[in-house]
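Please, structure for the following, as tokens.
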Amino acid sequence: MNRLRLIYSSSWAASKAILFATIITIWAELNAPLKAWLKSVTGHHWTTKSWFTIGIYVVLLLLIYVLKREPGDMQVKNSIKWLIVIAILGALALFLFFTGHYLVV
């Protein structure tokens, strides 16, 4: 197993999974039918979002690992930097959305 390729694949898969979780969370709060559908899949919308996020991470991890042969040191470093940026922006987006969402009500 190539550690650099695994780190690269994992960081990009995690970045996409975070984007998905952030988008689906905000979208489901604004769209009652989507939230109801998510709830119908596993019994609670958060559980469904979690399973889908894990699925996206695992699928993308495997795909990127197989397709990307030998990432360079800079590519790995950049993928980790983007992961950090996306994680911070996702957390900030959710914080601002829920703060605004509940202060306006």
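DSSP finds four helices and no strands in the chain. The mean pLDDT is 95.
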